[in-house]
Design a protein that fits this description.
Chain lengths: 458, 993
């Protein structure tokens, strides 16, 4: 009897149990940690657009450390000492006959922060652009403001892989991630970039007066439509010089925030902050007893004119030199970067000083020597080394401008020295005797891109 | 009318079942063990061909009623003894039966389906069983994962490092996955337990890199090895198919001890031991010439010469290896358990206190575990069992392995420090700063002040319910339900105090990372098993459902810029959430299996499992995993006349299993980021694949089991081919797309291997018994299809040695500079041994002593030894300044092969011979025990043993078994400043009451 009772109880429990919960039914799991890309593709809300814009600002600064440290090393503006990984010396300096390959140290198979990261920023800009065009929560004028901003950033970021791969060309049509367009030569890529920047300017021209979303404090003084237009033209000026479009460079510089009388240091900046934000990656405690630090290349000290304020303001002489050893020998750094008072100081990514020097270079190339000298003197006087007294020929002026660019644009997040010596075919001027390395002209297409071609091409 | 019908039915029943009440006879007897003295209880006595039976009682006696009057055969069986069949007939005298010990475990039962088991002698797969005696009988192992090495043919078990708290990679039959870790599924008493490597965050704080460089311990380390009754290893899909998804890399089934009918037995055990480093490699001495050569900066050179002279005059030359790794550590293990029961209830209750210090100061492992296993028979048909286990383990693993700049790795750091530099603090307690080429940090300060701790609270509970619905002579139907849960809560703490040299140089000195992780595994299974015998063919049919759920959550908080001496995150200048992550997985499956056994002569099985999972792109799609096997026991046939061959069983088995998709593979998320005080949404660099499906493996296994001379010698030979397909890899997109990858199922691998095991009782007489077993196995793996262009992965790039994944080659191939042509590098070796061999011997002599030892020989296979890379850079490798070819460049700067600046110098042969276990025990004779303890004590056993006792290898590192990246399918052999392996020597005492 007891058995029968137990059996019936069990049977009933089983039936009720199975009816209540079907053990074979699974519930779809939604990502518990993130929103999805699909959620902004159509009818995004204003808040979602705002988050995408801030996301673009965040991505826009991801390239900074590697490009500053690596391109700066290639141009011997700096040395990046890192005792934990000697390859920052041996591989970036090209010691022992090392040559860049498709998966080089510091960049990897994807080209790292000089290739993959700018394209990620471009992807973010494309998603932002598509999202804002596909929603009814924003009006037409506001849409133009956002797309203008996005295209301005895209233009800036496209130049980074273009300068990294140089004559190897880059891909410019990246709308569809599964079907990126083919590689085009360097000058064609630059022409395409000009197109994007000009489109961005057109959009901003139809965008009213105020930017309808929040930007970080890095855009202080530039966060109106007028300010954004000036930044767009500043970037276009930098580009025009690479295209050897001297008239265009002048026009762009004049339409930008360039000012001969104004503070040479003005410009939009990447901002940094304490966690959850990121710290300024170029900040190192002065005089700290560490073996990982960016140091000033000795040639910058040796070649400086006495009294140059740029040396006093940018280079800090350590109480004792830092050194690192590799199997090629030991390197010493007596000076380090003093431009960043704290670890959350913003880093300007394009400044008035550069625009003044672009103006000087454009005038010199157009044989407008007196205007070139006027611009050069603006920089020289502010640097405390007096007016230019050399010859007024194109060759002498270009020499002078390139010299001034070394100090004015030292270790800016771009690698100006490396790019400047290359576009003027003066890479043999870069001093490599101290480290026994070599100067890299450019980098080959990253392995991941070659593999993609193999994968789709068969 | 009713009454007459009743009577008619009764009469018909009487005709149909004539034997009831009329013909039967009784047989009685007594069963003893091999020595004919002690009785054996619980022996099953069954009438052959029926299910009528009984068991022997505590005195070994039995009485059984045999229906009918013809003679019958009684089968006597008990696990651990060789089965016997005896013919009996009416009127026979009481039986006196002596059962022989089953040395080769042929009578043991082995799990095949999810709810049934089969005798080993009928098994069609190569399943390895490890009994409690083999697990902990020779020496005291620290963690369960470490107990399997050398005992499982076909397994590549590798210690990731010597840090206390375990951490082993268990790979069965080669590589199953290119992205996963190829670790097996582990089921403990029916619970799908957590055997993951949980993050501690050490790699973030030391800046080594990702979580795979945390040197995390595996959660299998929590389980008390002394609780285990036996472990079964289903090595590949042919055996594990019925477990479906998650069984690609094999299944390990652990059963804990149960109570037994009889007097309560209390067992107490205490181990005391010492640990010391198994091997140290030595460092180079310095001289004025060497200092002049090595330090090229004249200022630095002068400083070093002064330091050197000072050290010479005071005689203070240090041996840093000894200083850091040479601490003799105390090991202790205390166990108490009680087991007993009666016919209805059986219990096993036990607890353990483990406290083992590590050979590096301030490291160690503590475990507190208490277990209660209860089996109860509610009635003749219904029974249940409950197993509960609570564990608390506390591990300090120290700072070793890779690091970047922070100096928080002892081995990495001391590679650069000459042995005349004094690291010790001065009288004020200040540690000297370092200014050599390596990280700027004092490793002694890190050892003395920094913390790497993990505190785990864990609760494992399982419950099984059995209902024998039908229980007739020739058929039965059983319903079984099992539920289990495993809850792990892990609190981790990594702390680098603010007064360390590197921290002082930071903007916010002092770094602390608190982690809280919870993992909750639940599983439920219900099955029906039907068993029927027709003539002499037995059919076992089973069908059931399984449901699994895995929930995980992790939360890491980091603080930098700490108030002096503080570790609370609220005492930090910068407080940030380092990570918050949750995952939820649900899986469900149906299984069915049919096993046909013809008189133990031919045993065939077919089965299928259908599974679905929320991890897949299509959560409702059922993936099918069939299996089939056949075993033929030639010796059971009548025609078999060769007496010397006692067992000959050719067997063949086929099965399919899957490996699960990683969580999140279907999502395309927008990540969160902060800049300038605003929140941003960034497009992730991984695109989800909404069509992703699990990786599958198909295995075909052929084998032969043979026993000779009454099973005194046994041979097991297996050859298998395991093909995995739909292997998940990240399809790398063009970086210009701004998205780096999407997971895809394209690759295919093929593993082929051989497993051989030969065991024999070589000598068996009154004074000496010697059992010896040799195992030999090898596995080769090849990428048969890649689907995407070949790529390099793992380790630290082609300059130091990396792995090439290319169609037609082994995925374990190590390549590196120099480049043979663009993008093609030189092949330097392979992370795969040519073969592995183990040799186990156990001797019982002078009646009371037993001695065992286990050796392992791993031949071939290469490591990427980057510890040598670091010590060469720092000038501290032993023999650095010697100049073998007398060309003026010391050996440390000129390592072959020429041209001396490529990856070849770091790829080194990792062959070794190790004595894994050795033990000598004395069982105090019964007579002495009775004399001293007067009946209170049943047995006393004392002994001494060692674990990881000897190492013979040409490898230039602490241990060729090492992995700085933890458990990895492909890159699990990279050596970067590991925690040296510990030799553990013990003294034991066990007392049974």
């Amino acid at each position: 009897m007891k058995n029968n009772f137990i059996k019936s109880v069990l049977a009933i429990t089983a039936i009720v149990g199975f009816a209540a919960c079907n053990p074979m039914k699974l519930e779809r799991v939604v990502d518990p940690n993130n929103p999805s890309l699909g959620s902004v593709a159509n009818n995004a809300s204003r808040a979602q657009i705002q988050f995408l814009i801030t996301g673009l600002e965040s991505r826009h600064r991801d390239y900074l450390f590697t490009v500053t440290a690596a391109f700066g090393t290639f141009g011997r503006e700096i040395w990046y000492f890192n005792a934990s990984d000697p390859r920052f010396q041996t591989d970036w300096l090209g010691q022992g006959g090392r040559q860049p390959d498709a998966a080089y140290f510091g960049f990897g198979a994807t080209g790292g922060a000089a290739y993959a990261t700018p394209y990620q920023t471009i992807r973010q800009a494309i998603v932002l652009r598509n999202s804002v065009l596909n929603t009814a929560a924003v009006n037409e004028q506001e849409k133009k403001a956002v797309t203008g901003f996005a295209k301005t950033i895209m233009g800036y970021q496209f130049m980074i892989p273009a300068n990294f791969l140089y004559e190897n060309g880059i891909r410019i049509n990246v709308e569809d991630p599964m079907k990126p367009g083919p590689f085009v030569p360097y000058q064609d890529a630059l022409t395409y970039i000009k197109g994007i920047l000009d489109e961005g300017l057109n959009d901003l021209n139809a965008a009213g007066t105020s930017f309808p979303f929040n930007l970080t404090a890095g855009w202080a003084g530039f966060n109106t439509i007028e300010g954004l237009k000036r930044v767009n033209r500043a970037i276009a000026a930098r580009l025009a010089v690479y295209r050897k479009d001297w008239e265009g460079a002048l026009n762009a510089a004049n339409a930008s925030f360039m000012s001969l009388a104004g503070d040479l240091n003005t410009g939009p900046a990447h901002v940094y902050g304490a966690a959850p934000d990121a710290f300024n990656p170029l900040f190192y405690v002065l005089n700290a007893n560490i073996s990982t630090v960016i140091v000033v290349h000795p040639s910058m000290i040796a070649d400086a004119r006495p009294g140059d304020l740029r040396v006093a303001n940018k280079f800090f002489q350590r109480a004792s030199a830092v050194s690192v050893s590799t199997d090629a020998g030991t390197l010493f750094g007596s000076h380090q970067d003093r431009r960043w008072p704290t670890n959350i100081t913003p880093i300007r990514f394009i400044r008035n000083e550069e625009l003044v020097l672009i103006k000087a270079e454009a005038h010199a190339q157009l044989n407008q020597f007196s205007q070139a000298v006027q611009a050069i003197d603006t920089v020289r006087v502010r640097a405390g080394i007096g007016s230019y007294t050399g010859a007024q020929t194109q060759a002498a002026l270009i020499n002078e401008i390139l010299y001034q660019r070394r100090y004015s644009l030292w270790a800016e997040p771009w690698g100006h020295r490396w790019i400047d010596t290359r576009r003027y075919d003066r890479m043999n001027e870069i001093p490599v005797t101290l480290d026994g390395g070599r100067v890299f002209r450019q980098f080959p297409k990253p392995q991941a891109d070659l593999n993609w071609n193999l994968y789709v091409g068969g | 009318m009713r009454k007459s019908v009743q009577k008619l039915v009764q009469f018909m029943l009487l005709l149909l079942i004539p034997s009831i009440g009329f013909s039967q006879y009784t047989v009685t007897g007594k069963v003893t063990g091999e020595s004919k003295q002690e009785p054996v209880s619980n022996v099953s006595v069954v009438i052959k061909g029926t299910r009528i039976g009984t068991v022997t009682d505590a005195q070994g006696q039995f009485s059984i009623d045999i229906p009918g009057s013809k003679s019958a055969t009684l089968v006597f069986s008990l696990v651990g003894f060789v089965s016997q069949s005896v013919n009996v007939s009416r009127g026979a005298a009481p039986l006196e039966l002596s059962m022989k010990t089953d040395v080769l475990n042929l009578t043991e039962v082995v799990v095949t389906g999810l709810a049934t088991s089969v005798k080993r002698s009928n098994l069609a797969n190569a399943v390895t069983s490890i009994s409690a005696k083999e697990l902990t009988g020779t020496t005291q192992i620290q963690t369960t994962d470490g107990a399997l090495y050398s005992k499982v043919p076909g397994a590549n078990i590798r210690m990731n490092g010597g840090a206390p708290g375990g951490g082993m990679s268990i790979q069965l039959r080669g590589v199953s996955s290119l992205v996963g870790a190829s670790q097996p599924l582990i089921i403990l008493d029916g619970v799908y337990i957590n055997n993951s490597f949980q993050r501690s965050g050490r790699a973030s704080i030391t800046q080594a890199g990702g979580a795979n460089q945390d040197d995390g311990s595996n959660r299998l380390a929590d389980i008390n090895p002394n609780d285990i009754q036996n472990i079964e290893v289903l090595k590949g899909p042919s055996a594990a198919a019925i477990y479906g998804t998650r069984a690609n890399a094999g299944v390990i089934i652990i059963t804990t001890k149960k109570g037994a009918n009889g007097k309560t037995n209390i067992s107490f055990g205490q181990d005391f031991g010492v640990g010391s480093p198994l091997r140290l490699i030595g460092t180079d001495n310095w001289s004025v010439d060497k200092i002049n050569f090595f330090f090229t900066n004249p200022v630095k050179r002068a400083t070093e010469l002064v330091r050197f002279q000072q050290a010479q005059t005071t005689g203070q030359i240090f041996d840093f290896e000894d200083l850091f790794y040479g601490n003799t550590s105390a090991l202790s293990n205390t166990r108490l358990s009680a087991s007993g029961g009666n016919d209805k209830t059986k219990f096993f209750v036990g607890g353990v206190l483990t406290n083992e210090e590590g050979i590096i100061r301030r490291t160690g492992f503590e475990r507190y575990s208490i277990r209660a296993n209860i089996d109860h028979k509610l009635s003749k048909r219904i029974s249940f069992s409950i197993n509960s286990n609570f564990i608390r383990s506390n591990t300090d693993r120290g700072f070793t392995g890779n690091q970047n700049n922070t100096g928080a790795s002892i081995g990495y750091n001391i590679a650069y420090i000459p042995n005349y530099y004094d690291l010790r603090p001065n009288s004020a307690g200040l540690y000297p700063d370092l200014d050599y080429g390596g990280p700027r940090e004092n490793p002694l300060a890190v050892t003395d002040k920094a913390t790497n701790n993990s505190l785990v609270n864990r609760f494992i509970q399982s419950a099984t319910f059995n209902w024998q619905i039908i229980d007739r002579d020739n058929s039965s139907l059983k319903f079984q339900m099992t539920g289990g849960l495993d809850f792990v809560q892990n609190s981790t703490l990594i702390h680098l105090p603010e007064d360390l040299q590197f921290q002082r140089a930071q903007a916010n000195p002092g770094d602390v990372l608190h982690g809280r992780q919870e993992a909750f595994n639940k599983n439920f299974q219900a099955a029906l098993v039907h068993n029927t015998t027709f003539r002499n063919i037995n059919f076992t049919t089973q069908a059931g459902i399984v449901r699994l759920e895995f929930d995980n959550s992790a939360f890491f908080m980091r603080g930098r810029g700490l108030a002096p001496g503080q570790r609370n995150v609220q005492q930090a200048t910068v407080q940030q959430v380092e990570q918050q992550f949750q995952s939820k997985i649900q899986e469900a499956g149906i299984f069915a299996q049919e096993e046909v056994n013809w008189d133990d002569k031919v045993v065939g099985t077919v089965g299928i499992r259908l599974d679905k999972s929320t991890l897949n792109g299509d959560i409702d799609k059922l993936y099918a995993f069939p299996k089939a096997s056949l075993a033929v026991n030639l010796t059971n046939f009548d025609f078999w006349k060769f007496k010397s061959i006692s067992q000959l069983k050719p067997r063949v088995a086929y099965g399919e299993t899957a490996g699960p998709v990683g969580f999140g593979a279907t999502f395309t998320p927008l990540g969160g980021t902060n800049t300038g005080g605003l929140l941003g949404s960034v497009v992730s660099t991984q695109i989800g694949n909404t069509a992703i499906r699990p990786e599958t493996a198909k295995e075909l296994e052929f084998g032969l089991d043979a026993g000779f001379f009454n099973n005194r010698v046994s041979l097991e030979a297996t050859y298998y081919i395991k093909r995995t397909s739909n292997n998940i890899q990240n399809l790398n997109l063009s970086p210009a797309a701004g998205v780096s990858s999407t997971p895809s199922n394209e690759a295919e691998l093929e593993n082929k291997g051989i497993e051989l095991s030969l065991g024999a009782t070589v000598v068996q007489n009154k004074n000496l018994r010697w059992f010896s077993r040799v195992m030999w196995w090898k596995n080769d793996v090849v990428v048969t299809k890649l689907g995407i262009p070949s790529y390099l992965t793992g380790a630290f790039g082609s300059g130091l040695g990396t792995f090439l994944i290319k169609q037609g080659m082994s995925p374990l191939t190590i390549v590196g500079t120099p480049a043979v042509s663009t993008g093609v590098f030189t092949e330097w070796g392979e992370n795969n041994p040519n073969f592995t061999m183990s040799w186990f011997n156990t001797f019982t002599f002078l009646k009371h002593f037993d001695f065992s030892m286990m050796w392992e020989w791993r031949n071939g296979g290469e490591n990427i030894n980057l510890t040598s890379f670091l010590t060469d850079l720092g000038g501290t490798t032993k023999g650095w300044f010697n100049d073998d070819d007398k060309d003026g460049i010391p050996n440390g700067r000129q390592r072959p092969p020429a041209p001396y600046n490529n990856a070849g110098r770091w790829v080194q042969d990792a062959s070794f011979i190790k004595m894994r276990e050795v033990g000598l025990y004395y069982n105090v004779p019964d007579a002495s025990i009775n004399r001293i303890f007067k009946g209170y004590v049943n047995g006393v056993r004392i002994g001494a043993s060692g674990n990881n006792v000897l190492l013979f290898t040409k490898y230039e590192g602490y241990d060729p078994e090492t992995s700085t990246f933890g458990a990895q399918s492909i890159s699990g052999n990279v050596d970067v400043a590991p925690y040296p392996t510990t030799r553990r020597l013990f003294f034991h005492i066990n007392i049974n009451f």
